[in-house]
Write a structure and sequence with these properties.
Elements lengths: L1 E6 L5 H7 L3 H9 L3 E5 L11 E7 L2 E3 H13 E7 L1 H5 L11 H7 L9 E6 L9 E3 L6 H12 L26 E3 L9 H7 L6 E3 L6 E3 L26 E3 L3 H9 L5 E4 L1 H10 L7 H11 L3 E5 L12 E4 L2 H10 L18 E5 L11 E3 H7 L15 E3 L7 E5 L1 H12 L7 E5 L19 H20 L1
Parallel strand pairs: 1-2, 1-3, 3-5, 5-7, 12-13, 12-15, 13-17, 14-19, 15-16, 18-19
Antiparallel strand pairs: 4-6, 8-11, 9-10
Length: 468
């Protein structure tokens, strides 16, 4: 049996663990007919047309790696991904936090021999992987056990290492803004309870150990009554329900020198100060951090609504969530509905507490995503930089605000019954409004009053800056 050992983007630690098998490896070679047919570390560099098993270490970093990996897969009966880099992307994935201009400064503009790709990927992004060995480095005895089973002709399914059971392929009901990871879900039902107070888009299906969370008839979230408000993500204890992240795409654009402007809503600053436990106003330090990441401008901005006829009855949705809710449950009121706020400039990254805005904009980062984008920075140590602009214009007409699903339904029923015939009605489905939107950090007990106090300070500071 011919075994090949290959390395892509990695440190060779897992390959050294293979060699550390020592006598056990020699026994495989001498007594069980195993031949190390390729290993650069051992000096066996003559390629064969076909291998029985290929052990591949490392992440895919370049176009050359992609071509080489596909060639290895074509010539291998069994392909095993060994180590965290091959399975998940591992440590090489940290390079996405390093802009290209910083690399050029360090290496004095020296060109790379290989053409790098925008992201760092595990092996199964490009080829089919038969078996996975996790760890950094791998456990050499797990590798030995795997090789012995293959030598005995036992084609088997790998289960999760700590739990001796196998799970069927989980449901995929994810939408444009939200995803549900069935492997993480523990069917605790918190999301079901919170959604029952909104649109009842998800519920339990099946029974006993097959109980899971799904939409009716297992349709995608976007095809159900889900309005992507994201409140379910705030209650999920294991992170199974979460937003579709745009962090990697924004990092890629910044890395390649795209001239982007960040539009930051005031509610984001209120939650940011709370989440990072910052002393004092966080706005100036956030501007400094975003500009270090590569943003050209940072603007403090409140979404604007343009009214064509302020005198007539108008329903103003705070976001795509409220607009969807009216379309799904009050279709007879669509004539009164205006479009939700939008950003016209395609070079703008909208930083918002609202998860539902992902339904209508190309580049939207929720507050939680912003925290992940800033996870390599210590904001408390940064100096303050003023916003490039402050755009907090509000509607210059008297409005009726309906905050929370109960108030939203009550107000819409008043309109349907003819009890409310004029005025501008602004809807916010999230309880407490945008300050507690589906994209905000998880709220701890007693923090709601603090958030509101911080928001008032943020708006006051912004108005003073604009007035000065």
């Amino acid at each position: 049996m011919k075994i090949a050992i290959y390395q892509l983007g990695s440190c060779s630690g897992c390959i050294h663990e293979v060699l550390n098998l020592g006598e056990a490896l020699l026994e495989l070679i001498n007594k069980k007919g195993v031949e190390i047919a390729y290993s650069a570390l051992l000096g066996v560099t003559r390629e064969s047309e076909e291998f029985d098993i290929s052990l591949v270490e490392g992440a895919v970093l370049s176009e050359e790696d992609v071509a080489r990996l596909r060639n290895i897969r074509r010539r291998s009966k069994i392909l095993v991904a060994i180590g965290s880099c091959a399975v998940l992307g591992g440590v090489p994935g940290l390079r996405r936090f390093t802009p290209e201009h910083e690399l050029r400064d360090v290496y004095d503009g020296a060109g790379l021999e290989q053409r790098s790709i925008d992201e760092v990927f595990p092996l199964d992004r490009f080829v089919e992987v038969d078996y996975y060995l996790r760890g950094c480095p791998i456990n050499k005895y797990e590798l030995l056990s795997l090789l012995e089973k293959i030598l005995q002709g036992k084609w088997f399914r790998q289960g999760e290492r700590r739990f001796r059971f196998l799970r069927e392929r989980p449901l995929d009901i994810g939408g444009v803004a939200l995803s549900l990871d069935g492997e993480k879900c523990i069917a605790c039902g918190r999301c079901v309870e919170v959604c029952r107070g909104i649109t009842s888009a998800i519920d339990y299906i099946n029974r006993s150990i097959e109980t899971a969370i799904s939409t009716p008839f297992k349709v995608k979230l976007d095809e159900s009554s889900c309005i992507s408000c994201g409140q379910c993500t705030l209650y999920c204890p294991v992170g199974a329900l979460r937003e579709r992240s745009s962090v990697a795409e924004v990092q890629r654009l910044l890395k390649h020198g795209a001239r982007l402007t960040a539009y930051v809503e005031p509610e984001v600053l209120a939650a940011l100060e709370e989440a990072l436990k910052l002393d004092g106003y966080a706005g100036g330090r956030l501007v400094t951090a975003l500009k270090r990441l590569g943003f050209e401008k940072v603007v403090l901005w409140a979404p604007r609504i343009v009214l064509d006829e302020p005198s007539r009855l108008t329903i103003v949705p705070g976001s795509e969530a409220e607009s969807l809710f009216v379309q799904l449950f009050y279709p007879d009121l669509i004539d009164y509905l205006v479009a939700p706020p939008k950003v016209e400039n395609h070079r703008v990254v909208w930083v918002t507490p609202c998860l539902a805005r992902k339904l209508g904009e190309s580049f939207v980062l929720t507050t939680r995503e912003l925290l992940r984008l800033l996870n390599t920075m210590d904001l408390s140590s940064l100096t303050e930089t003023p916003f490039d602009d402050v755009l907090l214009e509000r509607l210059n007409v008297r409005v009726i605000k309906a905050v929370g699903m109960r108030e939203v339904e009550k107000t819409l029923n008043y309109i349907r019954d003819g009890k409310l015939r004029e005025g501008v009605v602004v809807l916010y489905t999230c309880p407490g409004g945008c300050l507690y939107g589906g994209g905000q950090p998880y709220l701890k007990p007693g923090m709601d009053v603090k958030r509101e106090r911080i928001l008032a300070q943020v708006i006051k500071a912004a108005e003073e800056w604009r007035g000065g």
